[in-house]
Amino acid sequence: MQIKSQTFKAMAATFMAAVLLFVSTSLTFAQSAPLPLIRDAEIEGLMRLYTRPIFKVAGINPKSVKVYLIADNRINAFVSNGQRIFVHTGLITQSATPNEVIGVLAHETGHIAGGHLARMGVELDRASITAVIGMLAGVAAVAGGVAAGDSEAAKAGQGVMMGSQSLAQRNFFAYQRDMESSADQAALKYLSATHQSAKGMIQLFDKLSRQSIATIRYADPYVMSHPMPMERIRNLETAAKKAPGYDSVDPPELILRHHLAQAKLAGFMESAQIVMQRYPRSDMSLPARYARAIALFRRGDITNALPIIESLVEELPQNPYFWELKGQALLENGRASEALAPLQQAVTLLPNNGLIQLLLAQALIDTESKGNAEAALKLLHKAERSEGGMPAIFKYKARAYGLTGQLGKAELATAEAALLQGDKELALQKAKLAQARFKAGTPEWTRANDILNFASRD
C-alpha cells in the first residue's frame, strides 16, 4: 500500500502540474520561470495611465493593483497571485497603438474584477477530485489485474486513470474558456464606459490568431484553455461595433508616449546595430533620437549620446524621463557629480517616484561626500515607501550610513539587503554584527534579532 500511495500521489501531482501550466495566462500558453522582471519609471507610469480609467469603471482601487513588466518579446499579459498584472514587453513593442495595449489590460482587469483566480482554485479542487476518483478506480483495477495475472484488466485500469485525468482537464478547460469569454465581455464594458474603442483589442487578438494558426489548426478545441481565436474575434467584433466609442482614436500625446516607450525598450534591450537599423540617423523624431541615445550610452559612447539627449531635453523640458536619462548616462559613465543636476530636475518634475529618487540617491552617494550621503538617506527613506522590497535601497543605505559613520546601521542595512536577495548566510553574519552595536530593546536591535530568527530557519 505504501508504494501504491506514493504512485498515486505522483500521478496526481503530474495532473495538477499539467493544469497549472494554464492557470494564470490570458493570451498565450507561454510561461517563463523565473520571470525576468524589469523596472522602469516611465513605462510603469504609462501602464498606470492606461489602467487608471479602466480600474475606476471596474470598481477597483488603482493602488491595490500592481503592474509588472517581464522582459519577453512575445505578446502576452496575465493576472497572477492576487491583484497583479504581468505584461510582457513584447505586448508593448509589437502593438501598433496604445489602444491595443489598453484593450488587453481591460481584459486582464476583467479577470481581477470577476474574481477569476479565486474561483479557479475551486475549479482546480473539483478537477483534482474528479481525477482522484478516476485514479482510485484505475489503481484498483490495475492492482486487481496484476494480482490475477490479467494483463488486459491491468491495461483497462490504466485506461480508466488516463480517462479520468482527461475528463478532469476537459472540465477545467471548459470553465477557463468561459472565464476568458467573461473577461472579454468585461473589457468591452470597461472600454465603452471610458469612451475608448475595442478595435485595438480585436486587432491584437487577430494578430495572435494569425501567428498561431499553424499550431491550432488541428487542435481539439475542448482541451484549449481559451476560446478558439476566430470564434473569439467574431464574437468580440460583433459586440464591439455596437458600442458608441468603436471609432474612437488615441490622442496624439498618448501615441507619442507609446512610441517613446517602444523606443526605450528597443534602446535598452536590443543591440546597438539593430537599434540603428530600426531608427536610422535620418529619422529625427523624438522616439528615434531616444532609442539612438540609449543605444549609444549603453555601448559607452557618451560623447555622441549626450548631444542627442540634450536635444530631447531642449524640445520637451517638462519630460522627467529625458532628464532621468541624462543623469543615468552621466552616472553610469563615472560622472556622478554632473549627474546630480539632471536627476534633481527629474525628481522635481516627478517628486513621488521611488525609482528616480533611488537613482538620485545613488548619484549622491557616488560623489562620496558626507553631506551628499545624508541627503541620499532622506531620499532613500522616501523611496522605501513605494519600493520597500528592493534590495538596492538597502545596499545604498548601507553605503550612505558608512559614509556618515553610522556603522551599526550600515551593517543592519546590509543584512536587510542580503535577506531580500535570499542570502541567509550573509544576512546572519551582518545581523549579528549589527546587533552587537545596538543596545538591547532598541528598534535597530529588535530588527537585527528578527533577521537572525528568520534567516536561521531552514
Number of helices: 20
The total strand number stands at: 4
- Assign a percent range to the helix content: over 70%
Radius of gyration, in Å, reads 27 Å
Overall pLDDT score: 80
Give structural attributes.
single chain; 458 residues; Zincin-like; 20 helices; 3% strand; disordered N terminus
Characterization of the model:
The chain is mostly helical. Among the domains are: 2-240, Metalloproteases ("zincins"), catalytic domain (Zincin-like, 2-Layer Sandwich); 251-316, no CATH class. The chain contains 20 helices and four strands. Strands 1-2-4-3 form a four-stranded mixed β-sheet. The longest helix is centred in the middle third of the chain and has 43 residues, at 151-193. Residues 1-33, 126-150, 160-164 and 213-225 have low confidence and may be disordered.
